[in-house]
Amino acid sequence: MKVNLKILTFSKILKKAPIVSLDGQPVLLFNQQHPSLLIALEHKKIQVFSECRNGYCGACKTKIISGSVTYHTQPLVTLKADECLPCCCTPTSDLDLNLSPEGADVVTRPGITTAVIALEQTKA
User: For the whole model, what pTM was predicted?
Assistant: First the structure.
């Protein structure tokens, strides 16, 4: 059987999945498993107040410390350049949001438990 190698090559360049952080603490790798940033945050047990979940009410308005997002539904709420509506957007780069990571399933280094990290933070 003869295989044409040109057919097997990838034409798209693979992009790195954005890391979403809360006040500098990495919380999730956004790899398109969830349709919106809000749903991904909720999956990690991060509490974000929301009502309409479609970009209409602005209840989930969140300040962006760094990074960028793209909207799958154009928000009807006026936003500043450093704000986003997690209910109708996805990150396009590493993203740091002005939200508390408290209670979230945070990303930790292999071999270090969350309890050890919490203990180190209380000593500081």
Answer: 0.73
**H or E stretch at 7:** helix 5-8
pLDDT at site 11: 52
Q: Taking a C-beta distance cutoff of 8 angstroms, is the pair 5, 27 a contact?
A: no
SS3 22: strand
Q: What is the dihedral of CA 91, 43, 101, 109, to 10 degrees?
A: -90
- The predicted-structure confidence for 68-114, as pLDDT tens digits, reads as follows 999 999 999 999 999 999 999 999 999 999 998 887 766 665 554 44
Q: What is the 3-state secondary structure (H, E, C) of 76-95?
A: CCCCCCCEECHHHEEECCCE
How far apart, in Å, do the first and last CA atoms of the chain sit?
A: 65
Say how far apart CA 58 and CA 88 lie, in whole Å.
10
Is there a contact between 101 and 46 (Cβ–Cβ < 8 Å)? yes
Mean pLDDT, residues 47-70: 95
Residue from 49, 47, 52, 100 nearest 77 by CA? 52
